[in-house]
Amino acid sequence: MFQIEEDDYWTPPPPITYTTEEVEEFEPEADMSSPQIYSFGFDPITCHAFNKDRTKLAISHNNNEVNLYAFKGGRWELTNTLSEHVQRITSIDWAPNTNRIVTCGADRNAYVWVEQGGQWKPNLVILRINRAATYVKWSPLENKFAVGSGARLISVCYFEQENDWWLSKHIKKPLRSTVTSLDWHPNNVLLASGSTDFSARVFSAYVKEVDEKPAATPWGKKMTFGNVMAEFVGGGGWVHSVSFSSDGNKLAWVGHDSSVNVANAVNNNHVATIKTNFLPLMTCTWVSPYSILTAGHGCCPMLFRYDDSGNVSFVAKLDAEKKTAASKFNAMKHFQSLDTKAQTHEENVTSVNTIHQNTISQVSIFAGDKNNTAKFATSGVDAQLIVWDFKTLESSIAGLRI
């Protein structure tokens, strides 16, 4: 036998150590221009809303609770849970100036939440509906809000100081089906709605108890409560989302037929429509005077443009789809999958090539406004909330004039 000398053993080198200064020097800086991704478990995010300075977040996970988060140390930390509803919450809106939260749900109720000493207390809302409440939106002055419902009506709610509750007035005709989306005109009076009767409409929601007499707009002069200022009927799908432009003169809406539509009140309510080959769109908002941001079942935010000649065109997908790298063929997985699922392992891959892995249900402006958006946020069925840098995305699209 041979004999191993002591010098033949390999001695590992001493561990490398760095000073604090050297570690900071080698640490790469975070790329703040890339999307900021936040995961909230596994349950779908039905709806979300931010407070004014975007340091607090309210979301509902397809149940009867609203979870409130505060942004601390680069992450969202749970601070409160609002649990007055007894059925699934369908919509949330957070008033930026009064700091009040309004929620509505399938239990046919809505609540206005007011923070008192770190706790959130609900105020009673008299909706007077016999079907689920589907969508809620504060008016720009935050002195009233509107609630759409499956009862084929819109409840416009305002506060009655004497009884300490929120009363409602109903807009009924000519609604013929569930109201899916609402948006307020900048003048605090006109209200746009989308519904499952394939129609988008503009109503007057003038409430004499809280509103001053409104001035005429390109949508019309007669603004008695419930008056139909404009009605756009047609299309091949439910209207899922509506959005007024920053000046209130244009109305955009998207539907289940994968179309993007814009009506221009200055141009005799002319409607421009583009039918796309994408999966159905669920949400939209204006991000500049000529740009419309949409998202939906395609799991990817997309940008459309409305030009001066009155046409709508597709600009780009804002989440570049990446091709997955080809994996090495594995014979065992291949035949195991054929034996158990009657399909190959490659066919069983369910991930998509976008950051969102399922339907985007809501898009909201995170920084800026409808006239000049700097960042926007998306949430969806994959339980993710993502904040996108719109200005960086805009600069990466060659030749785009926003």
Account of the 3D structure:
The chain has 402 residues and is mainly beta. Among the domains are: 44-175 and 196-213 and 226-233, YVTN repeat-like/Quinoprotein amine dehydrogenase (Methylamine Dehydrogenase, Chain H, 7 Propeller); 238-319 and 362-402, Methylamine Dehydrogenase, Chain H. It is built from three helices and 28 strands. The strands form seven sheets. A four-stranded antiparallel β-sheet has the order 1-28-27-26. It has a four-stranded antiparallel β-sheet with strand order 2-3-4-5, with no helix packed on it. The chain has a four-stranded antiparallel β-sheet with strand order 6-7-8-9, with no helix packed on it. A hairpin with a 5-residue loop joins β24 and β25. It is globular, with a radius of gyration of 26 Å. The protein starts with 19 loop residues before the first helix and ends in a 6-residue tail after the last helix. 39% of the residues are buried. The model is unreliable at 4-32 and 323-327 (pLDDT under 50).
